Every structure is written in C-alpha cells, then in structure tokens.
Amino acid sequence: MRDLIKNKYFSYLGALICVMLWGTAFPLIKLGYSELKIEESDAASKLLFAGERFVLAGVLVFIAGLIIYRKPPLVKKKDLAPVALLGIVQTTLQYLFAYIGVGFTTAVNTSIITGTVSIISVLLAAVFFRNDKLSLLKVSGCILGLAGVVSVNLFDFSLSSVTFFGDIIVLLSAFSGAFGNIITKKISENKNPTAVTALQLFIGGLILLIIGFVFGGTTVFNFNSLVILIWLSVVSSVSFLLWTALLKYHPVSRITIFTMLVPVFGTLWSFILLGEDIMRAENLISLLLISLGIVLVNLKGSKNED
C-alpha cells in the first residue's frame, strides 16, 4: 500500500478522490442543517454539529487502524503536542473561522477566498521545504486556478464594507487550512498517518464540540440527520487519512493545488443531491481553468520533487 501511495501518478488520483469526497460535504451539510432545524445564524449549533462530525471521524479512523494493524494506532508521547497542534490548526481554527466568517459575508466571497488555500500552501511550501521551490509554472498554475474559482462567482462577488469583516475571518480560515497542510507534511515523517489523522481529528473536533456546547448549540438527531452525520464523518475520515498519507510522501504543492476543485465538486454534488441548476457556461470555464492550473503546477517541478 505504501508503494502505491508513494507513486507520483497515484498521488494525482488520490488527491482527486479527496477533493471529490470533500465536495459532497457542501450539499450534505445543507441537508444536515435542514434536518436538524439549525438556523443560518445559529453558529453555536453549526460548530456543535461540526465537532460531532470530526470526533466521530477520528473514532472511525482509530477503529479502522485497529482492524488493519491489529493494534491501536497511537502516536508516541513526544508526538502528542505536534499532533494536537495540527488538530487545533487544521480542524478547530479552520472550521471555527469558516463558520463565523460565513455569517458576515456572502457564500460567493467565501468560495473565492477559500480557493486561496492551495495558493497559500504552495507559497508556504516554498518557504518551509527545499524540494518544493516556486517556479514560473507553479505561479502560473496558481493564478489560472484562482481565475477559475473567481470566474464561476465573478458577477456575484461583493466588496461592500458589510462583508469585509467576514472576508477577513474566512481568509483566516484559509490560512489555517494552508498551515495545516504544512504542519501535516512536517510531522507525518516517520509517523503512522492513521494515528496522526485519528488523533488530530478527534482533538480538533472535540474542541469545536465543546465551543458549540458552551455557547448554547443543540443538535437533536432523527434518522436522516444521523445518516448524514455518519456519512460526513466517513468522508472526513477517509479523505483526511488519504490526504495525510499523500502529504507525507509528496511535495505540498503537488497535492494541495487540487483543493481548488473542491467548489467545483461541491457544485456538481449540489446538482446531484439537491437538484440545483449548474448548467452555466462559467462552471465549464471554471473547471477548465482550474484543471489547466493543476496541470501547470505538476507539469515540471525540480528534480528533487519526484
């Protein structure tokens, strides 16, 4: 399995699987809010729901590791602090800022700003990792990818003062996600990705759960909402486990550029699950630009990257 994950071409497929799974979260979270009767302004209940999702995801990864390795997938005592930091940055802060920010800005602005995660990750990777240097192709690919994200939302983008605060908070979410990718790469070396993923999801989710509960969040589950929660947890467990493994063996820029496709898959899944209209020219243009950007970033890196 390790040889497969280390394969350069499988890394493309693996990253594509991750963003495709993450794309399902967009419509399913909407459905979950509807089933749980969570109002748009009820940030506490949203955080509680997110915390329940990630805690369960961490448990699922732990159980999977227990079955696969026939022993508990645990990190060493000296690794507890770094993994906890990863959970706080990549799970708690990223989603905390996201849920707060979307309450003060538009969904369109959120989509565009979130699309900068991959660009920030590529820039940070050039600072922290010698074998992941910037190149003209990488910069061009990032610009094209961002143009793809912007193009699908251009006519609805807002620069009003009302949304400025929310935009800044969402940008903090993007930075948290990008730094999470860097921390994952840094700490995953010589560690079991299953143990790292299980613990970071559980810790990050537990903090979100506590914050949501303290601020008065509530979730009363019925059958449908429970199924949605379980599926979202499965999506998180599978995608984050695979993502951690990919970042362990491959350059950050090669993997993270695929996150620009998350809104595209979110749109596609919204059509499949919610029946939303996606038959617009800008959706096709967006997909083409982002795909071309991904190709450019991965077309030819330094010899040390492979």
Task: Provide a descriptive summary of the structure in words.
With 306 residues, the protein is mostly helical. It has helices spanning 2-6, 8-36, 43-69, 80-101, 107-114, 117-128, 136-151, 161-188, 193-214, 223-249, 252-256, 262-274, 281-299. Helix 3 packs antiparallel against helix 9 and helix 4 packs across helix 9 (193-214). It is globular. The two termini are 18 Å apart. The model is unreliable at 301-305 (pLDDT under 50).
Secondary structure layout:
Blueprint: H1 2-6, H2 8-36, H3 43-69, H4 80-101, H5 107-114, H6 117-128, H7 136-151, H8 161-188, H9 193-214, H10 223-249, H11 252-256, H12 262-274, H13 281-299
Helix pairs in contact: 2-10, 2-12, 3-4, 3-9, 3-10, 4-8, 4-9, 5-8, 6-8, 7-13, 8-10, 9-10
Give me the number of helical elements. Answer: 13
Kindly provide the radius of gyration, computed on alpha-carbon positions and rounded to a whole number of angstroms: 19 Å
Strand portion: under 5%
User: Which stretches are poorly predicted, pLDDT < 50 over at least 5 residues?
Assistant: 301-305
Number of strands: 0
Mean pLDDT: 83
Order of helices and strands: HHHHHHHHHHHHH
Distance between the termini: 18 Å
Indicate the percent of residues in helices: over 70%
> Describe the biggest sheet?
none
- Envelope shape: globular
Secondary-structure class? mainly alpha
